[in-house]
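Quick start: what a row looks like.
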Amino acid sequence: MTDKITPCLWYDTGQARAAAEFYVSLGLADSRIDATHTSPADNPSAPAGAELMVEFTLAGRAFLGLNGGSVFPQTEAVSFVIQTGDQAETDRLWNAIVGNGGQESMCGWCKDRWGVSWQITPRRLMEFYRDPNPARTRAAFEAMMTMKKIDIAALEAAADAAGQP
């Protein structure tokens, strides 16, 4: 690990590697497993010699997965935001996360099977926040509030019905 600050994700014992392997399989450029580390001594979550940490990179950012046990479950207070370029990428990532034991939520949010929250957010959705016509921004936002996985065409239709920029 060379970054000054590296987010550490706490997983139930033995789950960090599976989570990291899944994340790097999502097809985000510059993603990989960098290293694994075993526990040098017995600790509350693992005996000496058991895998304790997994260093991994997602889209060029370093993370650490810790096999910490079941004491601290994941929460929506922290989430990964992936800004997608089009509907195909939005669908691919959403389906990979939800279809691998995850669960859908609202407004582009979903959870993976380890409880980590993700926001699969098309860049187009974010562009509506900069639209000079507040009616279009509001219409796109209100449409998004009814969705689970974001549908870019439905956002466009809602904004267009509200008026041109």
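That is the whole record. The CA atoms of residues 84 and 122 lie 4 Å apart. The domain at 74-165 is CATH 3.10.180.10 (2,3-Dihydroxybiphenyl 1,2-Dioxygenase; domain 1).
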